[in-house]
Amino acid sequence: MIKQLESIGLTNGEARIYHALSQLGATSVGPISDLSKVHRSIIYQVLEKLIDKGLVSFVIEDKIKKYQASPPNSLLQFLEKEKDQLENKK
Asked: What backbone phi and psi angles, to 5 degrees, belong to 72?
């Protein structure tokens, strides 16, 4: 699945984190880092990029931020945005 996510324009780190979140469900950074093998020092930056792309969201539970992968149809919306941007550059 990671290669497919990379093929639609995600970086390797973004793909690994999205894949981990799709397996884990809503969770804090620790388990995401453990499963994705993305170092904790950069995981917050990558999560912010995924949030900006509409592929990850978060909730705050008991003062802890928990991240979750957006539904798979958000990948289609992301692809449409990428397509539109490429068309505009053309």
From this structure: -55, -30
Q: Count Cβ neighbours within 10 Å for each residue of 46-82 and write b for 16 or more, e otherwise.
A: bbebbeebebbbeeeeeeeebbebbeeebbeebeeee
How far apart CA 7 and CA 67 sit, in angstroms, is 23
Asked if 78 contacts 55 with a C-beta cutoff of 8 angstroms, the reply is yes
How far, rounded to the nearest angstrom, does the alpha carbon of residue 25 sit from its chain's CA centroid?
12
Convert the pLDDT of each residue in 28-82 to its tens digit: 999 999 999 999 999 999 999 999 999 999 999 999 999 999 988 888 888 888 8
Distance CA 21, CA 74 (A): 14
Angle at 42 between CA 67 and CA 60, to 5 degrees: 25
